[in-house]
Amino acid sequence: MSDTQRFTGKVAFITGAASGIGRATAMAFATEGARLSILDRTEDPLRETADAVRRAGGEVLIVACDVSQPDEVERAIARTVETFGRLDIAFNNAGVENKAAPVADIDLDEWDRILDINLRGTFVCMKHELAQMVRQGGGVVINTSSGAGVRGVAGGAAYAASKHAIIGLTKSAALDYAKSNIRVNAILPGNIETPMMDRFTGGDIQKAIDLEPVGRLGKPEEIANAVLWMSADLGAFVTGAAISVDGGWSL
């Protein structure tokens, strides 16, 4: 267990928790005392995360959920509240990368797939998370955007569009709920050591490293640390922010 227990008694809801940033963030919250509801599209990949959380002394609920489907998300929130009694922190992290192609060559089904998961999924989760937080009197929502949310990406229009839109959604929601004791922020990771980065580069990680001014990829744990800061009292005056954690990639 961590010497710091900032989240004892708090309940954190994390999507895309089976690997990468989601898994690292689940572990970080668990070591600081939070109870966790972890989501991904299928249950099996979540078990490794759940086992690691339990080894760290955490309490965890596994929920298989397609975040683009409102009924599934509503049930996931309901199960979380039934199990733990409340929802204090939501980290909307589920997302997918696009198949690289210039705009004129993007298949419409591929466009819809990216927007459904990355943007619609974030909105659907927020809709139900925020309703619960209003009922209980407060909470924190953090959405995963990207460095691609503030700059263009050749061959990545669908992904960049979804991540730009998440920032606008975040800022608008922050204003909607500023007087409801609810903070809403976005985190913008750069090139991070994750399975998604392996897929995006076709295994040629050096291509991603070459894009980073600091000369290395970020670690999922470095994103997790930023999420925890944004979720804790240390970030109590921060809402509507889009915070880059990207080694200077988006400058």
From TrEMBL:
Top-level taxonomic group: Bacteria
Enzyme Commission no: 1.1.1.47
Residue span(s) of domain Ketoreductase: 10-190
Keyword terms: NAD, Oxidoreductase
Signal sequence bounds: none
Listed Pfam families: adh_short_C2
PANTHER family found in the cross-reference section: DEHYDROGENASES, SHORT CHAIN, ESTRADIOL 17-BETA-DEHYDROGENASE 8-RELATED
NAD recorded as keyword: yes
Keyword Oxidoreductase: yes
Family: Belongs to the short-chain dehydrogenases/reductases (SDR) family.
GO molecular function, one term: glucose 1-dehydrogenase [NAD(P)+] activity
Top-level taxonomy: Bacteria, Pseudomonadati, Pseudomonadota, Alphaproteobacteria, Hyphomicrobiales
CDD domains from the UniProt entry: SDR_c
SMART domains, alphabetized: PKS_KR
UniProt protein name: Glucose 1-dehydrogenase
Species this protein is from: Terrihabitans rhizophilus
